[in-house]
Amino acid sequence: MDTGYRLYPGTNDVVFKILFTSNLDYLRSFLSAYLGISESDFGELKVLNPEIPPAYIKDKFSRLDILAEAAGRKMNVEMQNISQDYYDSRSLYYWAKMFVDSLKSGEEYDEAPVCITLGILNFIMFKEEEAGFHSRFRIFEENRKTLLTDKLDMHFVELPKVRKLIGEETDMQKQWAELLLAETKEELSMIEQNTNSSVIKNAAGTIRDISADERNKALLWAREKSIRDEAAALHHAEKKFRAEGRKEGRAEGRAEGRAEERKKLIAKFRAAGVSEEMIEAALNMND
């Protein structure tokens, strides 16, 4: 029997942030599953940015990430739905910013904490068929495979690969991924029925509560509308700029012509004051 509300999945970045900042048991279990750290080793877990600034809801490209710290580690967790050509460099940039910001004035370099990024991706980042949906990157010497430092630790979870069950991911990794992917009330109910984890069961109930809460409905609807409107505007602008390029003979189907057209298109976007992330998204829509 339908209870009269629409379920918003955990891949919605607003739902994602509310879910994991509303109950630290969820966040602790989630981080433990993907970072390979025992829940007991976290000790006191703190979320440093639990709020969702109202302005972020209207900005399609704002980062509704979760910045947390525990046991000498800083962790940045992000739900990312938009595939970007330079997501790897973007992720490294935000890791570097977190690392630099974590070192206080007067501290020695070795006092900087381990900085970890965890990107939950609703798109395929690595094309290798044999690759699992959870990938981890650290800095190793190329031949000896010696770890240079433990300060850098980057994780990526590719949700579309979960259905294929590729790789050697743990049961809790799969359960958390499947929970985030649940798009209907029926799927959510099946997860609750099939899991032996009280944390997963409770988190499923929380996603249902987030979707049903009248205060959240306006927030979720506004976020969704802003994304649709911004995407439509970018798509229209991208088509207009490409049409201008074709009229001027800059798109003749040759590789060189396409590269030159892309450069000029980017220049026009920048001249119009469009952000770099918005430019990437617009170009990717028709690539």
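(ticket continues) Second input and output from the same batch:
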Amino acid sequence: MKILIYKYLHLSGVLLVFLSYGLLIARTMFAADNTPMRKLGGMLSGIGLFLILLGGFGLFSTVYSNALTWWILAKVVIWLALGGMLVLINKARNSMALFWLVLVLGLVASALGVFGPTL
């Protein structure tokens, strides 16, 4: 039961991060001066990043017995990169390239989560 809670926390965080980055990218493209939308996106991404961290390290401690492997380190680096994306998205004028970068980071992180333990 504990593993399912960590998985749901982790996936809820992933959904919040990508929802908030979609919101922020749309804001930079269509309503760059919308401050309440920027604050909401920043708040949701922070909560999502925290849930990713909480669920990910909970799974790490229960399922993998704290055995630090290369794919877990790669996921931590991707988590840090996604955290830095918030600043880049808010500073960008047209963030279509950042949209694709966030998408690729998400795909790599999900592939590592699915296939990493078997590699």
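Agent notes: The chain is about 85% helix and 0% strand. Residues 2-118 form one domain. Closing as not reproducible unless the customer responds.
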